[in-house]
Write a structure and sequence with these properties.
12 helices, 6-stranded mixed β-sheet, about 375 residues, binds 4'-deoxy-4'-aminopyridoxal-5'-phosphate, alpha/beta
Length: about 375
């Protein structure tokens, strides 16, 4: 539904309904015949794909009577974006919020959370997920001690994948099927390939279900997991760089969340990505497509391009009109002070134009 055709009740009405945007310049540079399409989630109200699950988890908990205004305290362990979505929903609904956030997550996320009125507790990044010091362990401890404390639990809550099965997935299908095939822009009329990273795994699991059950059961769903994480399947993929820390935020874990399906019928293939290739792909999305995306968007695009260059992906890459959709989960707002971004933005080699400016200003 168009967002601008009517008055919206509150900010939750501006969650989701994000655009699917052609990445033609990158596709041309890569020599792709297929369509490369980005689902741009930073255009959701809270700035990420996780707004959708926050909204659904809160609304369903309210329906089930689990949230009581003036009493309930929503506590959630998150890499930040689910927290921002929850803090946004709870700001308008009047629930208190506590977010437990590993130290590696950006200051920008903490600032956004605090600005929305949430309390933020930082936890050691290196703490194992099941240790009492981890973001999950600390959230559980707080829930036991704080009256009204409730963990909606994105790692187990069925409303996480369902939010994507019911909103993100159908939006992608609607955009693809609603765009006619023309001579200059051929389209198969189907989602042929879908690429998404996994943190909780709710996005990729829900998207796969939406697309394979209701649209195209032959769709190839590709999961992206950073080196150092253990979410990829089969497990052998995770041996290289096992235990390594990675800078990219929001994807990868040291345990398999319940909401992630590693069934090859749901996620056909997994790709492991490095920080370097992720950040190079972020730069490409900014410079070539003008999209101010965050790090995990670069992971997803770099995985997609690597697969399209591979033996298995080449046939799709060379098929006119095949639709390859890449999920771009959040925006650069979350990472403006991170060294990887500042380096990319401010320490690039001076361009010929920059050198010309320097010359002009020196002589005049
Ligand atoms: N990218 C970013 C920036 C995220 O915050 C998340 C959520 N953890 C993801 C990707 C992965 O989404 P999901 O939890 O649905 O797998």
């Amino acid at each position: 539904m168009s967002r601008t055709a009517h008055i919206i009740d509150d900010v939750l009405g501006a969650v989701g309904n994000t655009p699917l945007i052609r990445l033609d310049r990158i596709a041309n540079e890569e020599g792709l015949q297929c369509n490369l399409l980005g689902k741009v989630e930073y255009m959701s109200a809270g700035g990420s794909v996780k707004d959708r699950i926050a909204k659904r988890m809160v609304e369903m908990a309210e329906k089930e009577g689990k949230l009581v205004p003036g009493h309930s305290v929503v506590i959630e362990p998150t890499s930040g974006n689910t927290g921002i979505g929850l803090a946004m929903a709870c700001a308008i609904k009047g629930y208190s919020v506590i977010i437990t956030l590993p130290n590696k997550m950006s200051l920008e996320k903490e600032a956004a959370l605090r600005a929305l009125g949430a309390e933020v507790v930082r936890t050691p990044t290196e703490a194992a997920w099941d240790s009492p010091e981890s973001h999950i362990g600390v959230a559980q401890r707080l829930q036991r001690e704080i009256p009204g404390g409730i963990i909606l639990d994105q790692y187990r809550n069925v409303n996480n994948p369902l939010a994507h099965e019911y909103t993100t997935g159908p939006e992608i299908v609607e955009a693809v099927t609603g765009t006619p095939s023309t001579e200059s822009r051929p389209s198969s009329g189907k989602v042929d390939v879908l690429v998404a990273g996994a943190g909780t795994g709710g996005t990729i699991t829900g998207l796969s279900r939406a697309i394979k059950k209701k649209h195209n059961k032959e769709c190839i769903v590709l999961g992206v997991d950073p080196k150092g994480s253990i979410l990829a399947y089969p497990d052998e993929l995770n041996t290289e760089g096992s235990g390594d820390q990675y800078v990219v935020e929001g994807i990868g874990y040291d345990f398999i969340p319940d909401v992630l399906s590693r069934d090859p019928a749901d996620v056909n293939e997994w790709l492991k990505t490095s920080d370097e290739e992720a950040f190079a792909a972020v730069r490409l999305l900014m410079r070539r497509e003008g999209l101010l995306v965050g790090g995990s968007s670069g992971s997803a695009l770099s995985g997609a391009l690597r697969w399209l260059r591979s033996e298995r992906g080449r046939a799709v890459a060379q098929t006119k009109g095949a639709n390859v959709v890449v999920l771009l989960p959040d925006g650069i707002r979350n990472y403006m002070s991170k060294p990887w971004f500042l380096k990319m933005a401010l320490e690039a080699e001076p361009s010929p134009l920059a050198r010309r400016i320097a010359d002009v200003l020196k002589t005049s």
